[in-house]
Write a sequence for this structure.
């Protein structure tokens, strides 16, 4: 009923863009932070941060890793760690402000899938690079579905490598008491798909919410299946 291999006992869900629409809020907050930095650094020749920049360099990665990856893509390699942290802090302040003002909605199809998964006895964890994981889950009324949460705070506290390294997903599987081959990963970021493949998880479902060449890129990264919404899997 869930469109997954019969051996699957645990589901590890990314959060932003998979369960909730907060990926859009993250992208907009990153744009404000990066455009402010770029325009100040080179007022006459700067090129704005784009949606493709977000998908290619920031989406799914821990905050500071995303800053470094994007700046490197623009051949900006001379910034110190204080500047990296300041860009990330500015982004997070904008994100939290928007979250507090506007709240967040879960994707209806994701809620239907979570309900079906819970009814079928599939155990559920959330693995996200965001340090705001608990707040987003609470705001979207999704905490009730989640047995284990691994987020950006855990990544920092435990010194884990961020996606596309598999460390956070492997920790999620460990906390759920299963080996990776018994778990499925749900991701909307290429870096997250790569992390799941690197961790040798049993099945990888990618959610394409942007269109264009994203689905093909997800398959190339190793996704076993690509869907536009999770409830496509319910009758699979």
């Amino acid at each position: 009923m869930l469109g997954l291999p019969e051996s699957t006992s645990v589901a590890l869900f990314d959060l932003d863009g998979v369960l909730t629409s907060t990926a859009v809020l993250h992208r907009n907050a990153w744009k404000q932070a990066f455009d402010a930095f770029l325009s100040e650094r080179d007022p006459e020749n700067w090129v704005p941060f784009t949606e493709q920049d977000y998908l290619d360099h920031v989406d799914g990665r821990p905050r500071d890793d995303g800053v470094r990856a994007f700046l490197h893509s623009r051949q900006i390699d001379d910034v110190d760690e204080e500047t990296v942290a300041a860009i990330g802090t500015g982004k997070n302040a904008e994100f939290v402000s928007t979250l507090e003002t506007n709240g967040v909605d879960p994707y209806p199809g994701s809620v239907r899938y979570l309900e079906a998964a819970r009814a079928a006895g599939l155990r559920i964890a959330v693995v996200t690079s965001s340090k705001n994981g608990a707040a987003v889950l609470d705001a979207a009324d999704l905490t009730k579905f989640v047995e284990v949460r691994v987020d950006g705070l855990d990544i920092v506290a435990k010194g884990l490598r961020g996606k596309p390294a598999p460390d956070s997903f492997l920790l999620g599987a460990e906390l759920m008491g299963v080996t990776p081959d018994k778990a499925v990963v749900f991701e909307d970021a290429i870096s997250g798909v790569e992390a799941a493949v690197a961790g040798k998880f049993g099945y990888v479902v990618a959610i394409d919410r942007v269109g264009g060449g994203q689905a093909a890129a997800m398959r190339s990264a190793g996704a076993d299946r690509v869907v536009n919404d999770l409830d496509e899997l319910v009758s699979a």
